[in-house]
Amino acid sequence: MMDNYRDENRTDQKEQEVLLAKENPQPARYSATDEDKKKRSFGWFRPLLGGVIGGGLALGIYTFTPLGDHQTQDTSNPAPAQETSSVTAKQTSSDSGSSKSSSSSSANSSSISNMVEDISPAIVGITNLQKQQSSSDLFGFGSGSGSNSNSSGEDAETGSGSGVIFKKANGKAYIITNNHVVEGASSLKVSLYDGTDVTAKLVGRDSLTDLAVLEISDKHVTKTASFGSSSALRTGESVIAIGDPLGKDLSRTVTQGIVSGLNRTVSISTSAGESSINVIQTDAAINPGNSGGPLLNTDGKIIGINSMKISESDVEGIGFAIPSNDVKPIAEALLTKGHVERPYIGVSMIDLEQVPQNYQEGTLGLFGKQLNKGVYIREVAQGSPAAKAGLKAEDIIIGLKGKETDTGSELRNILYKNTKVGSTVDVKIIRNGKEMTKKMKLTQKEETPS
User: For the domain 119-135+152-217, what is the CATH superfamily, name and number?
Assistant: First the structure.
């Protein structure tokens, strides 16, 4: 009875294996049978050959089927050894990529560190010193008007900023910085990389672009920085700011960020009146004291002069720099003449795209392609070239000297780079939806150093 039961059990087992083989076409596992024993008479070569072929097939199946992504091991099947090998290879590949990324990041960091180390001797701190007024009471003691007040006639620190040495010539070195860093100074002090403090001379300044040039002896100057092209910048490009935020205690602080935006137009209040300037937006940290310091690309070239930030409590990472392509001609003009001779038209303006569209259509009479392109005139100065040419408030300037002017930045670029004082130019405007051209003779509005 036991033998019959075993035979029946063996038959049932074989039937189950046949059924499983039909339902599951994966390679079946067999136990030793009489037929298997007969096949062993072929000697040691055949199982070795079968093992080699079987191993090759198993690897081929693993590579080209979903089993390759399956990481659960079956302890009854010897195949997982190959699977483990493949999984390990994937992990190694992933780790190798991570290693390469880490190596690349480390190399990039090292490159920036080398650049910062090389350019840092060209970065300076600037201290604005002004004479403090004091008065004497009935007993002859002086009483100052502020916390920095001293006896009459003495200079006291009223502010500080940063700058960058961009030129050496004839025993002199020249520093570019912001006008608001040096404005109103009775004397200026420059702190060099080696800790030396030297007195600086104001060569020239320009309020409308917020730029100024200082002169010092080149005795302790070992490095100058060069300008790069701001027109080659792209949004997302890495940039580095270096300067003295909050004064000398944090001198030559380095912050890194990206170019957050290009060709931004911001309005600033200056001693020469309201001005709109073209700027680079960056999220590199810019703080009080960074003004006048350089915004650098990863090659160490000056691509901007850090000038301002939005300092509202709920705003972070929005700073602005004057593009190098705008800085260079101003710096050269200040070096040669001490001031900027620029054509003057005499209008207060904003980009038309900043004017609500319903106002453009309903009040200004604009439509279709006229919308959002051009410069909206808010006010025309009396006696100015614009007034003499017949321009009025609420006119839209869409062209100057044959070139389109979609923004105030474009208008200024054409005016300052493509026209001359005394020349007469065509100004194309839109008034009440109709295009017309006016002729305007440009005059000069000159600003001299104070």
Answer: Trypsin-like serine proteases (2.40.10.10)
